[in-house]
Specification:
By secondary structure, the protein is mainly β. Helix content is 0%, strand content 50%. The protein has strands spanning 4-7, 10-12, 18-24, 33-39, 46-51, 57-59, 67-72, 77-82, 91-98, 104-106, 110-114.
Length: 116
């Protein structure tokens, strides 16, 4: 079983920034896929960023240019840098790891609230 430990969520004003982190309990292989999802109240879960096997980050249209997904392989940690945050960015953010064998693991989720 792989555990994902998240941190970095909280309350931020519009236009502010947060850096979410997600540390895995095991080595993240280059064959693994990392992604960040969010879910706002009354809305479906949405994938906001994904790090592909070739190391390129892909983003949902409404976060492109503002969010950046990255990873530090030495720390088994993925990050989501979020800039120019908007109230509509609020929600529960979860990291997802799909290992090369196909098993999927989720973090516990962290609350992000963008409000003045």
């Amino acid at each position: 079983q792989v555990q994902l430990v998240e941190s970095g969520g909280g309350l931020v004003q519009p236009g502010g920034s947060l850096n979410l982190s997600c540390t895995a309990s095991t080595r993240i292989s280059s064959l693994d896929t990392l992604a960040w999802y969010r879910q706002a109240p009354g809305k479906a879960r949405e994938r906001v960023a994904i790090m592909t096997r070739i190391g390129i980050g892909n983003y949902a249209g409404d976060v492109q240019g503002r969010f950046t997904i990255s990873r530090d392989s030495a720390k088994n940690t993925a990050y989501l840098q979020m800039n120019d945050l908007r109230p509509e960015d609020s929600g529960i953010y979860s990291c997802n790891l799909i290992i090369w064998q196909g098993d999927s693991y989720w973090g516990q989720g962290t609350q992000v609230t963008v409000s003045s």
